[in-house]
Amino acid sequence: NKASYSIADAEGHISVNTAPEEMLDEIDGLGMRTISAIMRRRGGELVPEDRELFLTVEEVRRLDDIDESDWEGDDEHPGLRDLFTVYGEGRINVNTASREVLSAVPDLGDDVIERIVRYRQGEDGKLGTDDDRQFRSLESMSGQLEIDPTDLAPLARYCTFESHFFTNTGFATQRQGKVRAAARAIVHVQTESAVVLAWSEGELGPQIAH
Length: 210
Hints:
Elements: E1 2-9, E2 14-15, H1 21-25, H2 32-42, H3 58-61, H4 68-72, E3 84-85, E4 92-93, H5 99-102, H6 110-121, H7 138-145, H8 153-158, E5 159-160, E6 165-174, E7 179-189, E8 194-201
Parallel strand pairs: 2-3, 4-5
Antiparallel strand pairs: 1-6, 6-7, 7-8
């Protein structure tokens, strides 16, 4: 009787597989041992055969020195699980990243982050409404935010304005909810096509893969 769907931008998160190490260093609750373990899993250019990339965000939870409260978060602060993805090329989408994700961009000031989020919210001050706004390019941001271009320099290195990896989730019910169906697809949107990277059906937990 009812059907719904949602589309989440994976590149509004921090990729544990490709984000620069200095970005991981900026994340509260992520210690040096954990960051070292992540970098070892990712291998290096000289030994690509040693790479063992993360397939799901939940794999990060199994690393050493991650506190349960830091991982889960609370009503006021998102947990580490809400910051990460395993997809993307390491750049954060400035149009979809949360305030907490943007805080991981090295040398990006709190005032700049606040202005970015406030601009995106539009006139009503709320995300997810009809008056939401987006940035098209780094060149136009300075005028839109009324801020010195030098303060936006970190965005050129660590951020992007468009995404290519998305999590699509569908949910449907019949017979007053007695029959349920759910499916989730991870999609890589390319120039002329969209490739499904992963597909799950049935009971969908919150952390199959961001």
